[in-house]
Every structure is written in structure tokens, then in C-alpha cells.
């Protein structure tokens, strides 16, 4: 059975482990730097990035996490986990927080607003559908979600989401011209891949659609010799719409 580490300091690590289990993959909780030696790929879950960063600092996780990313081992950050992986974050609390970095992008920590502005939406992801099958869209669960405002040249955009242009004008001078027209649509980026790094602003682990987990497992299996030697090929079950799940409070 393939093994994927899941950073288990705070947030939805149990839900990720359950999603992996449904695909026949073992997720192991990572709480200490030395435990990262036992895994060749890692999920950093959603939660609350400031709290997670404080706990990571307390457990001296940052150097080991940075080394893990720098070595090109597959890492997937969801929501707060995506914030961790960003090279640059805006909208942080005073004094900011440490980031792991590695993903060439600028992220806005709470772009979509506060907890009560959380929402669900059908989001187009052609790359996911072409690799994993199923519908062109997935159910995006956005919980006090971040959004990516800018990406570097190496970053592949896997999904974006429409927003009114005026919601971006304070960050991006290029949409300043459109200020007069509040109807104008723009978009923010909500899923990216940069080599061995996957980032999603939403929470696939809270849905019954396991395609994002399956996509990441394939990244983990594809990764160079060192990493793949300890991962056995997994039988990926993409039957995300089967009503077979009893262990999760998921969107069906
Ligand atoms: N915006 C939140 C933060 O800053 C992340 C929310 C989430 O992970 N669901 O930590």
C-alpha cells in the first residue's frame, strides 16, 4: 500500500486520511520533523494557517518542511496548506506568519471573506477531468478560502473562479481601468501545479469526489526514482459518485 504523509498539527488531516483510504492509500500523520523521513510525499491540510504556523514553529517543522519541498518531493497544500506553500501571502495578521514557500505565487489569505462568506460552487477543471475522467467540473468547498492573485511562469493553472473585477482592483493595477464598471468580471486562481507542488484553495477532502486525491497520488507515484521506489502502484478508484461512504461528513 502506498503511504502519503499528512501534516497533522491542526485542521482537516483526518478527512484527507479518510479520502486516501477510500483510494487504497495509507495516510500517516506527521507531527514531528523526523517523521518526514518516513514519507516521500505530503499533504498539508486546510485549517487556520496562523495557528498551524504557530504549531509548526513550536514543533520546529519549518526547516524540515522547506527541505522536503526543495528536494522536489510531491506536496499538496489545500486551503491553509496552500497558503503555507505560497512564496508570498497578503492579508496576513500583523507580523505575518512563517511560510514554507516553494510555490511561485502571491496568495491572498482570506480573499473570499470571513467564515460566513464560505460557499460551495461547481468549478471547471479540464486538466483534472482529462487525467481522472468524470465531469468537467468538481464541487469546490471554499471555507474562508484564499485565492491566488498572481503566478510565476512555471505554474500551471488548473482551475480559476470568476469574481467581480472591482474585488481585485485594490491588488492589481491592471484592473484599475475597469473600476467604473462594477459588472466587469475577472477571475482568481484556485488550483495550481508547479512541478511536484499541487495547491488547491478549496477542500476536496470534504467531498465524495476523490479525483484530486487520485491526481495527487499519481504525482506521488510519478515522482523520480528516490520517491517512487517506496510507493507501490495503487489501484485508483475514481467512482467518486458511488454512495459507498460511511466514514465522512462529505458532500455527495
Ligand atoms: N484563510 C484561512 C487561513 O488563513 C484558511 C482557511 C482554510 O484552510 N479553510 O488560515
From TrEMBL:
<dbReference type="InterPro" id="IPR002161">
    <property type="entry name" value="PdxT/SNO"/>
</dbReference>
<feature type="active site" description="Nucleophile">
    <location>
        <position position="79"/>
    </location>
</feature>
<feature type="binding site">
    <location>
        <begin position="47"/>
        <end position="49"/>
    </location>
    <ligand>
        <name>L-glutamine</name>
    </ligand>
</feature>
<dbReference type="GO" id="GO:0042823">
    <property type="term" value="P:pyridoxal phosphate biosynthetic process"/>
</dbReference>
<dbReference type="GO" id="GO:0008614">
    <property type="term" value="P:pyridoxine metabolic process"/>
</dbReference>
<dbReference type="GO" id="GO:0004359">
    <property type="term" value="F:glutaminase activity"/>
</dbReference>
<keyword id="KW-0378">Hydrolase</keyword>
<dbReference type="GO" id="GO:0016829">
    <property type="term" value="F:lyase activity"/>
</dbReference>
<comment type="similarity">
    <text>Belongs to the glutaminase PdxT/SNO family.</text>
</comment>
<dbReference type="InterPro" id="IPR021196">
    <property type="entry name" value="PdxT/SNO_CS"/>
</dbReference>
<feature type="binding site">
    <location>
        <position position="109"/>
    </location>
    <ligand>
        <name>L-glutamine</name>
    </ligand>
</feature>
<protein>
    <recommendedName>
        <fullName>glutaminase</fullName>
        <ecNumber>3.5.1.2</ecNumber>
    </recommendedName>
</protein>
<dbReference type="GO" id="GO:0005829">
    <property type="term" value="C:cytosol"/>
</dbReference>
<keyword id="KW-0315">Glutamine amidotransferase</keyword>
<feature type="active site" description="Charge relay system">
    <location>
        <position position="203"/>
    </location>
</feature>
<feature type="binding site">
    <location>
        <begin position="143"/>
        <end position="144"/>
    </location>
    <ligand>
        <name>L-glutamine</name>
    </ligand>
</feature>
<dbReference type="GO" id="GO:1903600">
    <property type="term" value="C:glutaminase complex"/>
</dbReference>
<feature type="active site" description="Charge relay system">
    <location>
        <position position="205"/>
    </location>
</feature>
<dbReference type="InterPro" id="IPR029062">
    <property type="entry name" value="Class_I_gatase-like"/>
</dbReference>
<dbReference type="Pfam" id="PF01174">
    <property type="entry name" value="SNO"/>
</dbReference>
<keyword id="KW-0456">Lyase</keyword>
Amino acid at each position: 500500500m502506498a503511504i502519503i504523509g499528512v501534516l497533522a498539527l491542526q485542521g482537516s488531516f483526518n478527512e484527507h486520511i479518510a479520502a486516501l483510504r477510500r483510494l487504497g492509500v495509507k495516510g500517516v500523520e506527521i507531527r514531528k520533523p523526523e517523521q518526514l523521513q518516513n514519507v516521500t510525499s505530503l499533504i498539508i491540510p486546510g485549517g487556520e494557517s496562523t495557528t498551524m504556523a504557530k504549531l509548526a514553529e513550536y514543533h520546529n517543522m519549518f526547516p524540515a518542511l522547506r527541505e522536503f519541498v526543495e528536494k522536489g518531493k510531491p506536496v499538496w497544500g489545500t486551503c491553509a496548506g496552500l497558503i503555507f506553500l505560497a512564496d508570498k501571502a497578503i492579508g496576513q495578521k500583523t507580523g505575518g506568519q512563517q511560510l514554507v514557500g516553494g510555490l511561485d505565487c502571491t496568495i491572498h489569505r482570506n480573499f473570499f471573506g470571513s467564515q460566513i462568506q464560505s460557499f460551495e460552487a461547481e468549478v471547471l477543471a479540464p486538466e483534472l477531468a482529462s487525467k481522472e475522467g468524470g465531469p468537467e467540473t468538481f464541487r469546490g468547498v471554499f471555507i474562508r478560502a484564499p485565492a491566488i492573485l498572481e503566478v510565476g511562469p512555471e505554474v500551471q493553472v488548473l482551475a480559476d473562479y470568476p469574481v467581480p473585477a472591482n474585488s481585485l482592483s485594490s491588488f492589481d493595477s491592471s484592473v484599475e481601468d475597469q473600476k467604473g464598471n462594477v459588472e466587469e468580471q475577472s477571475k482568481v486562481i484556485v488550483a495550481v501545479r508547479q512541478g511536484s507542488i499541487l495547491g488547491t484553495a478549496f477542500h476536496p477532502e470534504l467531498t465524495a469526489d476523490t479525483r484530486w486525491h487520485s491526481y495527487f497520488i499519481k504525482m506521488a507515484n510519478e515522482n523520480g526514482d528516490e520517491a517512487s521506489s517506496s510507493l507501490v502502484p495503487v489501484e485508483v478508484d475514481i467512482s467518486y459518485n458511488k454512495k459507498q461512504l460511511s466514514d465522512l461528513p462529505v458532500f455527495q
